[in-house]
Design goal:
It is found in: Nucleus. The protein has about 600 residues and is of the alpha/beta class. The chain folds into four domains: about 10-170 and about 370-415, NAD(P)-binding Rossmann-like Domain (Rossmann fold); about 185-355, Ubiquitin activating enzymes (Uba3). Chain: B, domain 2 (Arc Repressor Mutant, subunit A), CATH 1.10.10; about 435-535, Ubiquitin-like 2 activating enzyme e1b. Chain:  B, domain 3 (Structural Genomics Hypothetical 15.5 Kd Protein In mrcA-pckA Intergenic Region, Chain A, Roll); about 540-605, no CATH class. The protein contains 18 helices and 14 strands. An eight-stranded mixed beta sheet has the order 3-2-1-4-5-6-7-8, with helices on both faces. Strands 11-10-12-13-9-14 form a six-stranded mixed beta sheet, with helices on one face. Strand 10 and strand 11 (about 475) form a beta hairpin. The two termini are about 55 Å apart. The structure holds adenosine-5'-triphosphate (ATP) and zinc ion. Zinc ion binds near residues 160, 161, 425, 430 and 431.
């Protein structure tokens, strides 16, 4: 007998499968909690949930399966317990783990009828996409950003995959703007985050905070000046035992003095004003504020003497934390790290006559937070489960992507489905029959380890790749620890990887094979060190996709989309519904909406480490 929770409006064929369908929910955050509740209330009785995180106080306003007493506990486990307290008859299994761990291989995924993603980052989304393709299990992908959201159905051989379309790169700023000539608060915030990493975080030469003597704008100024101190910031900080006065004077006084010597930089800009520890501590005559946990420390802009004081106390705490770790990881939710960045960003802003910001603002800029809105999550989670019904019924043609947009003055319409499910891109470097990608790297300069970490893992999202040099049988990278360690520090060219070489990369976990064509490439200054080209010209839609000329082309590059798509959101929506008006009989028209901003990380302003 079908349980009464299963909605009676559904077709019998769907109602019958719901009680026994096996569902995996990946992520128990804003969307995940809503999805779990919807599943439980619609009669699903066999659910597994995975989330790597623990509950933070800031989750409680919208992740309603969690209460104050759960703070610090596993999201997956508490979500499970909360659902069971509503309905103890559901079989629900929780994993407090990352879905990218080796334990969750293709066989794990094969056990499910459908996978529901409720994630917040592209790396995990790409990984689940690959696992579902490999296991041939339908995936429903979802995301929200403020008032916008979207749901996408993905099935091997039926639709696009999550990686069929290139996603816009994350915005970042040229190094010399950050190091020499900041002009906006965000530049100072990026600098302060880099300073945190230089002093306490993982070594990253791209995050240098000292004056950039190679700035082309300053050309000629420094020829007679000799070089700056060449030890690393970390080494130097250790040598002076993280003495806050010495650190302060170097970063906010001596380095600024040095910048002033690059006179060319200040011909058209207001020159910065160095500030010493003594000057900063003596700043301001008003009644002295101290840092508290109340709202004024959060929302007010701190005076400079307070920034200096916070600089000193946070350095002492972070130094202590570092003493039993290799490095610290900056996290917007970690008070000490956030206080350090707030203090440093504001001192730098003061020096460069840039508006200072409250800790609240800095957290939101530095953590790339756009407000998470409970109603948006609830609407998207509702759609996820509605689409799951269709997927279980096998009605794949009815599973078009749906976009949620903010209501505008011109239109009351906020939900807009696509007209048809998008077909896979035949040149997708993930779901194509023989995935191929061109990599532009400096073969004389890039080491094997850098290639593995930056290109294969961070950019192409592999987890544990094995790589051989095609035709030569050279084993370049092994996923078995230690097997190819001797190659790590070698330059690619030393292993015979040169312009025109072909690499065969294989990620066993993702069941993913990729052929990589190597092109030797020397990056211009301040440009990314390497490029990946999934053949964007070939990514344009073919006629079979059934789109008409003039329709918005999601496949084209960002610029192209902008050129074609100069309509307002409201016009799009009105046009969409005009085209769809059954009275007009225009069902053959196929105009596609430009999708809204995808998820959080597409709106990122900073280059997150
Ligand atoms: N690799 C992963 N494996 C399992 N769960 C993941 C993975 N990556 C992210 N998640 C989880 O996905 C969920 C996404 O939820 P959400 O977007 O609401 O983020 P949040 O961290 O809860 O909130 P916010 O980012 O707004 O503070 C989080 O609970 C996060 O822990
Ligand atoms: Zn694809």
């Amino acid at each position: 007998m079908i349980p009464s929770a299963v909605p009676s409006v559904l077709k019998d064929s769907v109602r019958e499968v719901i009680p026994t369908a096996k569902i995996l929910v990946v992520g128990a955050g804003g969307i995940g909690c809503e999805v779990l509740k919807n599943l439980a209330l619609s009669g699903f009785a066999d659910i597994e949930i995975i989330d790597l995180d623990t509950i933070d106080v800031s989750n409680l306003n919208r992740q309603f399966l969690f209460r104050k007493e759960h703070v610090g506990k596993s999201k997956a486990n508490v979500a499970k317990e909360s659902i069971l307290s509503y309905n103890p008859d559901i079989s629900i299994k929780a994993y407090h783990d990352s879905i990218t761990s080796q334990e969750y291989g293709v066989n794990f995924f094969k056990r499910f009828n459908v996978v529901l993603n409720a994630l917040d980052n592209r790396a995990a989304r790409n990984h689940v996409n690959r696992m579902c393709l490999a296991a041939d299990i339908p995936l429903i992908e979802s995301g929200t950003a403020g008032y916008s959201g979207q749901v996408q159905f993905i099935k091997k051989g039926v639709t696009q995959c999550y990686e069929c379309q290139p996603k816009p790169p994350q915005k970042s700023f040229p190094g010399c703007t950050i190091r020499n000539t900041p002009s906006e608060p965000v530049h100072c915030i990026v600098w302060a985050k880099h300073l945190f990493n230089q002093l306490f975080g993982e070594d990253d030469p791209d995050q240098d905070v000292s004056p950039d003597t190679a700035d082309p704008e300053a050309a000629g100024d420094l020829t007679a000046m000799g070089n700056l101190l060449r030890t690393s910031t970390r080494q130097w900080a250790q040598q002076v035992d993280y003495n806050h006065v010495k650190l302060f004077n170097k970063f906010f006084h001596d380095d600024i003095d040095y910048l002033l010597l690059m006179e060319n930089l200040w011909k058209t800009r207001k020159p910065p004003e160095p500030i010493s520890w003594e000057m900063a501590s003596a700043c301001g005559t008003e009644k002295r504020k101290v840092l508290t946990d109340d709202v004024s420390s959060e929302m007010d802009v701190w005076p400079i003497y307070l920034c200096a004081e916070v600089f000193s106390t946070t350095i002492a705490t972070l130094k202590k934390e570092l003493s039993n770790k290799e490095f610290l990881i900056w996290d917007k939710d970690d008070k000490v790290g956030l206080n350090f960045v707030t203090a440093c960003a504001n001192i730098r802003a003061h020096i460069f006559s840039i508006a200072k910001k409250s800790r609240w603002d800095i957290k939101s800029i530095a953590g790339n937070i756009i407000p998470a809105i409970a109603t948006t999550n609830a609407m998207i989670a509702g759609l996820v489960v509605l689409i799951a019904f269709r997927v279980l019924a096998g009605d794949y043609e009815e599973c078009q992507s749906i976009y949620l947009r903010q209501k505008s003055v011109h239109s009351n319409i906020i939900l807009a489905p696509d007209f048809f499910t998008e077909k896979a891109n035949p040149n997708c470097y993930v779901c194509a029959e023989q995935p191929y990608v061109s990599a532009y790297v400096n073969v004389e300069d890039m080491t094997v380890k850098e290639f593995e970490n930056e290109v294969l893992k961070k950019t192409l999202n592999m987890i544990a790749p094995d790589v051989i040099l095609d035709g030569k049988g050279v084993f370049v990278i092994s996923s078995e620890e230690g097997e190819t360690e001797a190659n790590n520090d070698k330059k690619l060219s030393q292993l015979g990887i040169v312009d025109g070489s072909i690499l065969k990369a294989d990620d066993f976990l993702q069941n993913y094979n990729l052929t990589i064509g190597i092109n030797n490439y020397i990056a211009e200054k301040d440009k990314p060190l390497f490029k990946i080209d999934a053949k964007s010209e070939e990514l344009k839609p073919s006629q079979q996709n059934g789109k008409e000329n003039g329709s918005v082309d999601e496949n084209a590059s960002e610029e192209n989309v902008m050129e074609v798509d100069d309509k307002t959101e409201a016009e799009h929506l009105e046009e969409y519904f005009d085209d769809n008006d059954p009275q007009e009989g225009t069902s053959t028209k196929k105009r596609k909406l430009n999708p809204p901003d995808d998820e959080d990380e597409d709106l990122i302003m900073l280059d997150d480490p």
